[in-house]
Amino acid sequence: MKKGLTIFVIIFFSLLFIFWETLSFQKEASKQVDYKPIDWFYQQRAFPNNQLNRIAYKEALKQSLRLRLDQSKSLGTWELAGPNNIGGRLTDVELQPSNEDVIFIGAASGGVFKSIDAGETFMPVFDDQLSLSIAPGQPETILVGTGEAHPGGGSLAYDGNGVYKSSNGGTSWSHLGLEDIGSVGRIVVDPQNEDIAYVAAMGYLFENNSDRGVYKTSDGGQSWDQILFLNDSTGAVDIAMHPEHPDTIYAVMWQRVRRLEYYTYGGLGSGIYRTYDGGLNWEELSNNLPSGPNVGRIGIGISESDPNVLYAIYADRVGYFDGLYKSEDGGETWIQTNDGNLSNMYASYGWWFGRLKIDPQDSDIVYAIGFDLYKTQNGGDNWQYISGSVHVDQHEVAVSPQNSDLVYLGNDGGFYKSTNGGDRWNVHKYLRITQFYTTT
Question: What does pTM read for this prediction?
């Protein structure tokens, strides 16, 4: 009798424990669906199928553009009231190689701006296009990729509507298609043939889609071929081209899934791929590089002065810094640089950055771009912190091809300039692309 009672008591408390754990799990699950305001903003527009109506979205953009142009003729004259103390997020800074006084910058939600006086003043050159969310482009033949590849955690990044081209310094633009690739990570153009270009496509932020990967045009953008595709949750976020042999391309793939209630920014699809024949055949580079399901966003750079030298910066799938690596044999083998003091440069959201920049004249000078900014002058043996008083969240560095001391920086606070290799920075106070969240 006692034995039966004991078994009954054990079963009773076991069932009670299971019930309690199930109830706790359900409560926790309900918390996960307690959407943040930004995700709620998306949910409103994705109802009822949790997917944006892309046709309606494009029509809304066209209507907004028409209204803006019509109202500009009837609303009188407006004066800027500020603020002037912060610029707003930049995603790219590019120098014109033949005239470094000409600078193009891409804003996360403000379009493209051009300077002809080395960054003293800027003028908008992309305001009449449908998408003002800009990804890195190429300064020779001006190609602009729309959509922001930085995904955000609680914040929201906007998808674009393809690639644009200007043949007259940004005065006018033509649309080159690729409307369904979501956001653009990087564009590179063949320096020997401007009709050949490669686009890194990350895909839509909140959806899996098969339009991700690397695209190539050989006819100036009249047609595009998808030359690298892994799966519908892995896109291309960065590309580097060999300066002397432009058929040699390095493409960075990034597995990224985001939904309203969760996100995971890494996986087995993340890695570096190389082609020697312009994209016909690809191989994944893996010798002493991080691999497996924990690999997150990666950034890559190739030295212009010594193309055998490459650098790659890694974050894990959560977003923590996971090493900065160097190759001296075109990517065959890699070693981790002495990057111990860079461990805090990604404060658990390295997916927001993922860039590095190599000095065009010296392969030993490299800028590691993250929450803060670091620099090495000896090929990674030592790294020094050079952020100083600049705004946090760095996104791009541009170095003069003729003067290594002349460096430009784009971050979440706007545009900065240094004339001493990053020792001191001056902010551009009148770049008016600040993002407003609400009005009163």
Answer: 0.85
